Amino acid sequence: MSDAIPPKPRPEPSDDTRPYWEGVAAHRLLLQRCADCGRVRHYPRPLCDACHSFAVEWIEASGRASVHSWTVAHHPFHPAFKAELPYTLVTADLPEGVRMLARLRGMGPEALRVGLPLRIGFEDNGEGLTLPVFRPAD
Amino acid sequence: MARRSIGAVTGIGETDYTRPHPGRSALSLQLEASLKAIADAGLAPREIDGIVIPGGTGPVVAEDIATNLGLPDLRFSVVTPLGGAAAVAGLQCAAAAVAMGVCNHVLMPLGRTGRSGARIGARLAQMPQFRLVGEFEAPHGANAPAQYYAPMARRHMELYGTTSRQLAEIAVTTRRHAILNGNASMTKPITIEDHQASRMIADPLRLLDCSLESDGGAAVVISAAERARDLRAPPVVILGVAEGHPDSPSTITQRPDMTRLGVAKAAPRAFAMAGVTPADIQVAEIYDCFTYIVLCQLEDLGFCAKGEGGAFVEGGALGLGGRLPVNTHGGLLSQAHMAGMNHIVELVRQLRGAAGAAQVPGAELGLVTGYGDLGDGTVAIMAKG
């Protein structure tokens, strides 16, 4: 059928990123920390941009976050997400020193402001992929 | 004032942008623009000995151009990356090549079938520069430039009080310029209220904040400064050119300051190379994939301070007769999305005094920018030769 809806984009984990996705599947948000200088980095990649060490350890994030910015998607750029419009994508600061982008759940975009505290949760995307989400802080 | 030029734009060419071109390939469209640019320079195709392909803007490679034009002595070919910043990056590359004597006349063609061919959401996922956002952001439903750039605009609004009506000023002025052009896709006047009533795409970006998807081709010829004087068209010389990449170039999400673009790093170098300041610029063709990207670049180029872009664009300041005429051809917002090649073409027209109804009187010094992918920036400062 020519108008069949394609699947949602799925990550294709590499050796550099696989621990992150395995963590998310287990409802744990794992971040890379340089095993030499201690700098936390995200998104996962091979090299520490501060000290150029390849040595890495994975730490579990606290689950806390605060709003850095956001957008509310109204136009269906990808047909797989059309049925979910409008939805809110939040960019949030994590206290570990990195940022993350995820859907906002459990509240509307009207109350968003820079610095608003959120907490990280997890949910299935409807196609068997677990993704992190942001929920209102308790 | 004696100014040192590092090369000249000697030929410009464009296809018809007023209608779609179903059944014509991107290659066919850019070959048409190429022949026009070569003829405009007063050259024969066989004299082209360099090709720059702006990368990330189409499927064509230099070999396609050389084969079709029958070039007997192609000595230099490159692909510049950077998407919408690639055309001005190509000016830098071509100017360096002709200044070194590697070749004499560089053709830089661009062609797109954005209207009749694959739409942006489908193209993006194939590009390697979007690998990180493809893995970590696209699964959440962030799939197109509007969705990646909207958080930059929202943050600017939250920090500096920038408003959607200020973004509308840019859309309205750009449309007014397109109507003067005669070769623009969009020919109906719009008002700020029209902008405010246009449907939301990716909040805070509305439909009239977004550029077009277009069919067409545009091309320029870059020649060594000493050869330019012998050619047909009045030369327009490149005085300064630079490329800059934002911190965290692979993802806006992780950028230390997401209101600062790569052009903030490029601009001081380009102005220093040219020996001029922002106050000297008489006309500016600013890459306008979205209204907000124009506003942010005006700040990053030094036309106003960070956070003051909203006030800077108010009251028709970017219109003809305003404080800084911007996108006098109608830009990507209202003329056509030629990934900024049409911005270079328009600046050359302005500096030749050949911009018709949109001519900035007495324009002798102008600036053109590119913005691409996730914030890469390029800028060229050019002058009447």
TrEMBL record, chain A:
<dbReference type="InterPro" id="IPR002878">
    <property type="entry name" value="ChsH2_C"/>
</dbReference>
<keyword id="KW-0238">DNA-binding</keyword>
<dbReference type="InterPro" id="IPR022002">
    <property type="entry name" value="ChsH2_Znr"/>
</dbReference>
<feature type="domain" description="ChsH2 C-terminal OB-fold">
    <location>
        <begin position="58"/>
        <end position="122"/>
    </location>
</feature>
<dbReference type="Pfam" id="PF01796">
    <property type="entry name" value="OB_ChsH2_C"/>
</dbReference>
<protein>
    <submittedName>
        <fullName>DNA-binding protein</fullName>
    </submittedName>
</protein>
<dbReference type="GO" id="GO:0003677">
    <property type="term" value="F:DNA binding"/>
</dbReference>
<dbReference type="InterPro" id="IPR052513">
    <property type="entry name" value="Thioester_dehydratase-like"/>
</dbReference>
<dbReference type="InterPro" id="IPR012340">
    <property type="entry name" value="NA-bd_OB-fold"/>
</dbReference>
<feature type="domain" description="ChsH2 rubredoxin-like zinc ribbon">
    <location>
        <begin position="21"/>
        <end position="57"/>
    </location>
</feature>
<dbReference type="Pfam" id="PF12172">
    <property type="entry name" value="zf-ChsH2"/>
</dbReference>
From TrEMBL, chain B:
<protein>
    <submittedName>
        <fullName>Lipid-transfer protein</fullName>
    </submittedName>
</protein>
<dbReference type="Pfam" id="PF22691">
    <property type="entry name" value="Thiolase_C_1"/>
</dbReference>
<dbReference type="InterPro" id="IPR002155">
    <property type="entry name" value="Thiolase"/>
</dbReference>
<dbReference type="InterPro" id="IPR055140">
    <property type="entry name" value="Thiolase_C_2"/>
</dbReference>
<dbReference type="GO" id="GO:0003988">
    <property type="term" value="F:acetyl-CoA C-acyltransferase activity"/>
</dbReference>
<feature type="region of interest" description="Disordered">
    <location>
        <begin position="1"/>
        <end position="21"/>
    </location>
</feature>
<dbReference type="InterPro" id="IPR016039">
    <property type="entry name" value="Thiolase-like"/>
</dbReference>
<feature type="domain" description="Thiolase C-terminal">
    <location>
        <begin position="250"/>
        <end position="376"/>
    </location>
</feature>
